[in-house]
Design brief:
The structure is a single chain. The chain contains 8 helices and 6 strands. By secondary structure, the protein is of the alpha+beta class. The chain folds into 2 domains: about 30 residues, no CATH class; about 120 residues, CBS-domain. A 4-stranded mixed β-sheet has the order 1-2-3-4. The chain has a two-stranded antiparallel sheet with strand order 5-6. Helix 4 links the parallel strand 1 and strand 2. It is elongated, with a radius of gyration of 18 Å.
Length: about 160
């Protein structure tokens, strides 16, 4: 919103007013709080698992597989030092040669979704595309977490 609009809201008694030049979708994509009728609906960002194992391009597959197994995961997200998603390792890739570099084993440039996408929309998309999981990222590509299909389907069952 514009600084003028922010000042006006403050003059009307609003306590928490932000000048956010990135726009509404960028605000939502960053997973920042919202108000209104849709604010209480389950979204990808709130359901995404933040504890997903991550790894770097120069790591070896065996070490990443051991780390993922120890945490009970059959997937890992490949990120850089800024947590920008570069690739994805699913069970098939994790089962590969232990000495292989992640940069060679990963699925590069996976499809990602933003935190503001409604859970019901994510459930439909993931079922239609036969995705067991999908990375959730901010608008600048930073990892929020890994969304599991079973989590969005379960969220729909508990709300509906």
């Amino acid at each position: 919103m514009s600084p003028r609009a922010a000042w006006r809201l403050e003059s009307l008694g609003f306590q928490e007013v932000y000048d956010y030049p990135g726009g509404k979708l960028d605000w939502l994509a960053a997973g920042l709080p919202t108000e209104g009728t849709n604010a209480t609906k389950a979204r990808a960002g709130t359901l995404a698992r933040k504890d997903v194992p991550t790894c770097a391009l120069d790591e070896r597959l065996g070490a990443v597989r051991e780390r993922a197994d120890a945490l009970g995961w059959d997937a890992a997200v490949v990120v850089n030092a800024e947590r920008v998603v570069l690739g994805l390792l699913r069970a098939k890739e994790l089962a590969g040669d232990a000495d292989r570099l992640i940069s060679e084993a990963m699925r590069p440039g996976p499809s990602t979704f933003r935190p503001y996408v409604l859970a019901e929309e994510m459930a439909k998309t993931m079922i239609d595309r036969e995705l067991d999981s999908s990375p959730i990222t901010t608008s600048d590509g930073r990892l929020v977490g890994l969304l599991l299909q079973k989590d969005v389907v379960d969220a729909g069952k508990t709300r509906g």
